[in-house]
Fold this protein.
Amino acid sequence: MTSDPLLAQLKFRDPQKARALAAALQREVDAIGRDEITVMHVCGSHEQSIARFGIRALLPRQLSLIMGPGCPVCVTDAPEIDEGVALARQGCRVLTYGDMLKVPGTVQSLGDAQADGGKVDVVYGVEQAVEIAKARPDEEVVFFSSGFETTAVGTAAAILRGLPKNLSVLSAHKYVPPAMEIVAGMPGSKVEAFLAAGHAAIITGCDCFRPMARKYRMPIVVTGFEPLDVLAAVLKTVEMIRRKEHDVANCYPRCVTGPGNLPAQKMLWRVFEPVGGQWRGIAVIPDGNLRLKPEFAAVDARRRFRIDVKGLWDYAPRQLADRCICGEIMAGFKSPKDCPLFGKECLPESPVGACMVSSEGTCKIWHQYGGVPDLKEVG
Amino acid sequence: MCLGVPGKVLAIDGLNATVDFFGVKKELRLDVVDEPVSVGDYVLNHVGFAIRRIPAEEVGETLALFDQILKDVAPDDLMAADVIGEMAAGKEQGK
Amino acid sequence: MAASDRVGLRHGAGGRAMRRLIEEVFLGLGGPVEGGVGLAAMDDGAAIRLGDQWVVMTTDSHVVHPRFFPGGDIGRLSISGCVNDLAMMGATEPLGLTCAVIIEDGFPREELERIRDSMKRACEESGANVVTGDTKVMGKGEVDGIVLNTAGVALTRRVVTDAGLRPGDKLIVTGTVGDHGMAVMTRRHALSIEGDLRSDVAPINRLVRAALDAGGDDVVAMKDPTRGGVASVLHEFAEKGGVGVLVDESSVPVNPEVRAAGEMLGIDPLVVANEGKAVIGVRAGSAEKVLAALRSHPLGRQAAIVGAAIAERPGQVILDTGFGRRLLAEIEGEPLPRIC
C-alpha cells in the first residue's frame, strides 16, 4: 500500500470542498432564477461516479443532471450482440469486456451463450486476448471489442503491432461526438449544456467540441470523474449558462489538452473508419460506429467468418426495440412512465433499451426505486 | 464511458510498464501515451493502456482551477467570500 | 427458449433474481414449521423446536473456479460455509457435518487429498466433525471437476434470524469486506492484476459465539455476506425486518488491495462475496459491548459499526457516501469488471 501524497491528491475526494462547490452551485442556480435547468452528461463513467458518490444529493433542486447516450456498452445494439453470440455458437472462443456479458441480443446475451456452453470469457483488455490466443493456437479466438474512442485506441494499437494468426476482432466500437450532435439537435430537447467525457477527450482533445458549442449555442465542459471534478464542472457549466457563453471549457486540464493525443488519433483513424449505425434505443447515428478498414480484413471477424445471425433470429425475432423511447428519455423530454414497454416487456432482468441495460440508467433507477428518491432528511 | 485509473510507474521494459495502483500492480502498454514516460511518473490507465501521462504540477493546477471557478461564481455575492473561506479552512484541516 | 424460461447464472448470484427463483419454484416444498424457522423464511438454515431448544440444520453445495485460490480452496470453503450458516442462526457448536462429493472421471487423486486436508484443518479450527458422507463419480464432462456438498446440524437455545431488526439497532460487520470475491475473481478472469488479494475464507462460529456471549438477547440479526456481499445482506435485513437501513460508507472496513482492485475493475466491494465475515444487528445499547468482544477475537480485529436500522424507507438500503446519499442497489448476477 502506497501512501504517496500525490496519489492521494489525485483522488480529488474531499467532501468539505465538495460542499463548498455545492453551496456555490446553489447560489449560481438561484442567480439564474429559473425553475428548471437541464445539463446532460454523456458518459457512463460520469453516471457511475455521480451515483456512487451520491453527488445528485448535493445538487440544487432546480438543476437536473441527466444521462445521455454515454455508455458504449448500453448502446450496443442487439444485432451487434447477435454477431458475438453467433460466433460463440459457431465454435469460436469469444473474449470481451465484463460489462458486455449482460447486454441482451435479439435472442441471447453473451452470458446466455456462455451458460449454453459457448466459449465466452471475460478479459481485462486486448492484451489478455492476445495472450489467450497465443496459448490456444488451435482455436479461433475473437476479441469482441466495445467502447468509445478511448478503448478503440488500444484495439488499434494491438492490431498495428500485429495479432496472433488465430485472433480476430469483432468491432462494436462507437464514436461519441456524432451522438452528442444528434441529441443536441433533437427538436424539443431541454438540454442546455453538455458535460463531455474526460477520458474520451484525452484522445480527441477538447477543441473538437468548439464548432458544436457554437452551432447549438450551448456550453460544453470537459471534465474528469472524481467528485470534485464533476462538481466543479457542473458549477462551471451553470456559470456559463448564466453568462450565455457558448464555448468549450476544460475542467480536466491534468489530463485533457486542446488538440488531444495526436499519435493516438493517428492510430485510431489508421485502423478504423466511421460508419453510420443504430445505437440501442436512441437513433441511427451517422458516423457513430467504428469499423475496421478494408486493409485489416485479415483480422476483421466480420470478414474472416460467415456470421450466421439470421440463424439466431429464427428462434425469437421480437422487435420490441422499435417501441423503446430511450432516446427521448435521454434527451430529457420524456420519462420512463411515458414508455409503453417500461415495467412490462422491459425489465432489469430482460432489458430492451439502453436506459434499462445500464446499472445507472434512468429506467433501471426508476424501476428499482419508483423515481428519483430524496434521501436528505432520512435517518 | 471509460473507466480510467491513475497509477505510478514502477518499472519500464520497452513499451511495457509495471504500474502501482494504490496497492495492486498491473502491466500496462505504452503504445498510446503521447509523451515519454519514466519511472516515477503518473499515468492514467484504460483497459491496460496508459492513455495519458499526468504531470505532477498539473494536479495542483487543476485544484487551483477549481478554486478559480469558485471565485468566478456570482462575484457580487457576499456569500462567495464565506465559501472561499470555508474551503481554505477545509484545506487547513486536510493538512 | 427465451432467456426468461431458463435458469441463468444470475439466478445463482445471491441477489433478487435468486430469491425470486427460490420463491417461485421451491418454496412450495416446505410446509409450516411450528414455532421455528422453515423453508419459507429463506434463512441461512432451518430451526426446529425440540424441547426447550432448537435443532438447527443447513446445507450448501460448493463449486468454485479456481478450486485453489490465495487464502483457501474449495475444501476450506465447504466446511466454513456450513459451520458459518449454522452459526448465523445462533448455533455455534456444530454436532456433526455431512459431506457429499461428486467427482468427475479423471480428477487427480492428489488434488482430492489436498482438498480433504484442508477440510480437516477447517474442522479443527471450528470444532466441527464430519460424521457421514457420500461419494459419486460422474463421467467426463458430466460435472465440472468436483462438487462438494456439506450439511450440518447443531443445537441452540436461542435462534437468531435475519428478520429481527428494529429502528435504532446498530449494524456491525466483523471485518474487511470483499476479500474472497475479489481474490477469486481476479484469478478467474484474465485480468492480469497482481497484488496481495487473499480470500478471507474461515469458520467464524467462535467469533460469533464471542458476540453472542457479549450481547445476549440484544443480538437480533445475523447473516454471512457471501454471494451478493454486504449489500445483499442489508437488503435482506431491511426487507425481512420491515426497516430501512442507513450505512456510513466511510466506516466500512476494506483492505487497501481490495479497494484498489475495486477501483481498477469498477466493482464496489460492498457487492463482493465474503466467506469469513458476518453482518450482525445489535440493539443500540449493546453495540459497543459486542464490538469490543468481536475485536478481541483474532478474526474480528477490524470489526466496525457501519450503520443503523431506521424507521423510514422500509426495505431499502441507503448509503451515505460522505458527499451525499444514495440507494445501495443489490447486484444482479456475478460482479464483473467494467470498462465504463
The CA atoms of residues 52 and 360 of chain A lie 9 Å apart.
